Amino acid sequence: MSNTSKFSEGVVAESKRSYIKRLATQGMRIDGRNFDEIRPIKITTGYVPRAEGSALVELGETKVLVGVKIEPGEPFPDTPNMGIMTTNVELVPLASPTFEPGPPSEEAIELARVVDRGIRESHAIDMEKLVIEEGEKVWIVFIDMHILDYHGNLFDACGIAAIAALNNAIVPASRYGFGDDFKLPLNHYPVPVTFAKIGEWIVADPNLDEESIASARLTVTTNEEGKINAMQKGLYGTFTYDEVKKVINRSLDIGKKVRDKILGDANGEED
Amino acid sequence: MEEKKRVRDIVVPGEEIRVEGKPGRGVFVENGKMYSAYLGILDVRAGYVNVIPLSGCYIPKKGDKVIGKIVDLAPMNWVVDINAPYYAPLHVNDVPWRVEFGDTGRFLSIGDVILAKVSNVNELGQVWITMKEPGLRKLEGGHIIKIAPSKVPRVIGKGGSMIQMLKDYTNCRIYVGQNGMIWISGSPDGIITVIKAIRMIENEAHTYGLTDRIKEFLERGEE
Q: CB contact, 8 Å: B192 with chain A?
């Protein structure tokens, strides 16, 4: 029991566990997908009109809403020539029977950090262009993620929604009297792809049932140049060296398809 | 057949029900008037006025056969999740085996699925269940899915017609608990077909001619 994801309900029926494994021996998954297949993605950008940028992402039945707010503020003393980015995740009780109100849980913090790292380490946002006055005033980008419906694999849903919302964001310079509004400058488009290990099988984009019996989880964030930007391993199970290599290759393929979808949906915006 | 033509009335919580009859389930009486307690369908049967909720969790009723999942062990009982507001204790006296004190884990462990009967419910909604009856047992293998308890009658069909059809076409063994938990055992292809059919029934539960459409779906799947 301690070996399962903390996101999901505590007790998984033994019959469900063995059924998923029995399907896997025949190369099948509980919702009829292939091992490398992710659930259908639907991206609605500009969903929240009052936010600077926003995206509603549905990954199968998982649903997340990301809003981007951009405000002027003071830079950190060690990076006076760079803007600031912060990410935050809310696991609201309406998304799942297992989510409780209160301060952010361990899971919410991990989720926010994985998404944050993917964007930060890929240098997706051109932070140097977010300086208004060096050392004095820079733009602060807030990425707020709200989980509306939890049906497994929040990492990918949030990561996709975050980059889609950033791609849709406009810096509101005229509101604060700093010149004309401009599009948030993006250099890269990192996309996270999460894999779960069930028995000896590795499946992409685990749904709720698969996530609840997975022994290990690996999220790989890659950008459009095929670079690995961030990785996060979760749960108590292990991956072999070959498995990690395989996962990285598969995440590049899947990431490319997802990226085309994000950029295609953003009003035909091209890199 | 004439019944079919009539559109069933939908009531909201607190709505006064002006229908002749005695108050049944899902209805409360205040100042001599009947009101609906749920968002649901008005159903007048055998002189009783009932409101069948459109959704919501399972409200246990004495005598119901339910499918439960063991979530905890204690020296003298198991704790069973039957999809109701409260977990139900299953006492060692209510199982068909002789269990020594503290030896519950040898017979049923956490995550096991059982077929049980609701032996008692009190006014607080607390439930007691039993397995001491022929046919009640631990369900081994297979797969379980959950549906809204209000949709259970549609999955079973009139006189068990729907469930029998699913069994005949897929060669699966299927148990439907009154609490909306369904246990399916058979070949993976069969189980997948059954799940698809049940989801279809769940989505179209309010429509007429459902059995024919499910039959059509199963026949297409066979090809």
A: yes
Q: What pLDDT, on a 0 to 100 scale, did the predictor assign at position A268?
A: 45
Locate the domains of chain B by residue range: 10-53, 65-139, 143-220
User: Residue B71: closest CA among chain A residues belongs to which residue?
Assistant: A11
Task: Specify the pLDDT at position B5.
Answer: 42
Residue A29 lies in a domain: no
Q: Are B121 and B172 in contact (CB under 8 A)?
A: no
- Sequence-separated (6 or more) residues with CB below 8 Å from residue A115: A87, A89, A143, A145, A155, A158, A159, A162, A192
Asked whether the beta carbons of residue B111 and residue A22 sit closer than 8 angstroms, the reply is no
CB A28 to CB B188 under 8 A?
yes
Selected for mutation to probe chain B from A1, A12, A19 (highest B CB count within 10 Å) is A19
Q: What is the CATH number of the domain that holds A158?
A: 3.30.230.70
* Strand A201-204 to A216-222 pairing: unpaired
Q: Which residues of A touch B140 (CB under 8 A)?
A: 15
Q: Classify domain B65-139 at the CATH topology level.
A: OB fold (Dihydrolipoamide Acetyltransferase, E2P) (2.40.50)
Q: What is the mean pLDDT of chain A?
A: 87
Q: What is the mean pLDDT of residues A217-222?
A: 93
Q: Which fold has domain B10-53?
A: OB fold (Dihydrolipoamide Acetyltransferase, E2P) (2.40.50)
In single-letter form, the type of residue at position B148 comes to A
CA distance A57 to A71: 24
The pTM for the full model equals 0.82
Closest partner residue to A11 (CB to CB) among B71, B183, B191 is B71
| CATH topology classification for B143-220 | Ribosomal Protein S8; Chain: A, domain 1 (3.30.1370)
Q: According to the model, what pLDDT value does residue B158 have?
A: 84
